[in-house]
Write a structure and sequence with these properties.
5-stranded mixed beta sheet; 14 strands; alpha/beta
């Protein structure tokens, strides 16, 4: 078994070995080995030209990554947590996402930005939010979130091959989780959602850290003779709407799990698209199970209470299938 953290590290190593244009840059990625230990040992292995420690200025080093990508390199920029990415939002929104459009297709930004997201580790509100919907709102970006060890390894090379910017959101709570690692060179399809569990009674849609909540709920529901189909979105922009709609056509019920806030979030977007394009397939109202709309608490019991839990998903499913 391999941890999620080790899978990401393996993906970075493989990319560095495979393409001389690839390099990793960010705060503490070198001598310290990364805030979450992902790049431990890589400075000694690949040297300071390819494993670059940066100053504590997200705007500066994301901007440097954009310039390097425009110059023909394939940078992997690590931002310590999604909350800190807001300090680079101008670079991401006004530069990385717009340059192809504003140059009439003459300039591309093949940049990968990795960042830790979400709660579950008692890191306080300024390190623990799920802000994926902020970035999924922006045309010109691809936004992905690996929920499994296999995808943690397989998404990076696919992202590096994309001619436009790709943001990878790595749930903090998954770094120590374990799973089977696919063969070296296996690449995830970052244009399609994955059906993680087949079912006939209800569709449960999740992504990132919410997938394990959805899967735990599906296990509980199976003991009650409720068959839940679990979909892992994988990619938040562009959304694989077709897979969700095809599932709704089979199950006729929809519950969405989202570690972001309920208002104006990923769950809201999926619900809207299901209502627009799959309304006549639905036999009950759509339910959303999201994080409580508060800054993420530090105390463990309060943090757990704020986040989506399997019991809440089970209750939502019971309500729609009844």
């Amino acid at each position: 078994m391999t941890t999620y953290r080790e899978a990401i590290a393996a993906a970075i190593r493989e990319a560095l070995q495979r393409d001389d244009r690839v390099f990793l840059m960010g705060e503490d990625v070198g001598a310290y080995g990364g805030c979450f230990g992902v790049s431990r040992g890589m400075l000694d292995e690949f040297g300071p030209r390819r494993i670059r420690d940066t100053p504590l200025s997200e705007s500066a080093f994301v901007g440097a990554g954009i310039g390097a990508a425009m110059g023909g390199m394939r940078p992997i920029v690590e931002i310590m947590t999604v909350n800190f990415s807001l300090l680079a939002l101008d670079q991401i929104l006004n530069n990385a996402a717009t340059l192809r459009h504003m140059s009439g297709g003459q300039l591309g930004v093949p940049l990968v930005i990795r960042m830790a997201t979400g709660a579950g580790r008692q890191l306080g509100a300024q390190h623990s939010h799920s802000l994926e919907s902020f970035y999924a709102h922006i045309p010109g970006l691809r936004v992905v979130s690996p929920a499994t060890v296999a995808d943690a390894r397989g998404m990076l090379w696919a992202a590096l091959e994309d001619p436009d910017p790709v943001l990878i959101f790595e749930p903090i709570a998954l770094y120590n989780s374990e799973g089977e690692l696919p063969a070296e060179g296996t690449v995830t399809d970052i244009s399609r959602a994955a059906i993680r569990r087949a079912g006939t009674d209800v569709t449960i849609v999740a992504y990132g850290g919410g997938l394990r909540v959805a899967e735990a709920a599906a296990e509980q529901l199976a003991t009650e003779s409720i068959s839940a189909e679990v979909i892992d979105l994988r990619t938040l922009r562009p959304l694989d709407e077709a897979t969700v709609l095809e599932s709704i056509a089979r199950t006729h019920h929809l519950v969405i799990v989202d570690e972001g806030w309920r208002s104006v979030g990923i769950a809201s977007e999926i619900a809207a698209r299901a209502a627009e394009s799959g309304y006549y397939e639905l036999d009950a109202p759509i339910r959303r199970v999201c994080t409580v709309e508060v800054p993420i608490p530090y105390a463990r019991q309060l943090e757990e209470a704020a986040l989506p839990q399997p019991a809440a998903v089970v209750d939502a499913v019971r309500a729609v299938v009844s």
